[in-house]
Amino acid sequence: MNWLNSGAFTLFGQRIIWSDMTGNILGLITLALGWRRSLWTWPVQFLSGLVLFAAFYGHLTGSAGKQAVVMAVALYGWWQWRRSQGRAEDGHIAPRFATWRERAAMLGAAAAGTVAVALLFTAYPSLSWDPWPDAYIFVGTIVAMYAQAKGMVEFWIAWLLVDLVGVPLNFANGYAFSGFVYVIYGALVLWGMRDWWLRSRRSPQPVLEGVPA
Predict the structure, then answer these.
(1) What is the C-alpha to C-alpha distance for residues 89 and 10, in angstroms, rounded to an integer?
(2) What are the TM regions of this chain, as residue ranges (predicted)?
């Protein structure tokens, strides 16, 4: 898989590598499919993680491990959306706003997870080149994917918060293509958030498991 880490082309003086380009193009497709509430968003997300895992495996163990977690959450999202299909009139998952309890739980998990992962990255420097921002992006991505799996509008907000750190971090670490893609992510996130927001107001709220009617 050495070709994945070879240069594809140069853009604005920055060397673009194949794995960075391929993984992030798939990430863009994933986000676009998520906006459309297509079940295919999850297989494409899994494929994106697989490409990056193959690129990192063997020399960036920590990065490969993070992609393994992303792939596991993508499988969970696939299972969750398949189970939830048919709850909206158009046959796709019905967007909804999270409850205050769910928001508090996600914020708490994001904060605690970021601290725990950053401390892990700090203790083992080989896992990350920039522990705290890297931990924030990694945990934020997992929280966003979990919220997406649950059909929560807030998943777009989580992605936007990840982008705010991801764009400068990727440029600073030489991943120019990732930086450019994250800028496009931001536009897609705003568009997708508006669409899910409007749909959540038009559509009947889905029945939440374990919550009495």
Answers:
(1) 47
(2) 16-35, 42-60, 104-124, 136-162, 174-193
Q: What is the pTM of this model?
A: 0.79
Interatomic CA distance for residues 158 and 125, integer angstroms: 26
Residues near 57 by beta carbon (within 8 Å), at least 6 away in sequence: 1, 64
DSSP notation for 72-136 = HHHHHHHHHHHHHTTSSTTSSPPPBPPPHHHHHHHHHHHHHHHHHHHHHHHHSGGG-SSHHHHHH
Nearest by Cα to 182 from 24, 33, 26: 24
Contact (CB, 8 A) for 59 and 80: no
Q: pLDDT tens digit string along 135-146?
A: 998 899 899 999
Which residues are 96's β-sheet partners? Answer: 152
CA distance 132 to 4: 27
Confidence bin at 211 (pLDDT 50/70/90): very low
In tens, the pLDDT along 16-41 reads 667 777 877 888 898 888 888 889 99
Cβ contacts of 75 within 8 Å, gap of 6 or more: 42, 46
Report the distance separating Cα 42 and Cα 73, nearest Å. Answer: 9
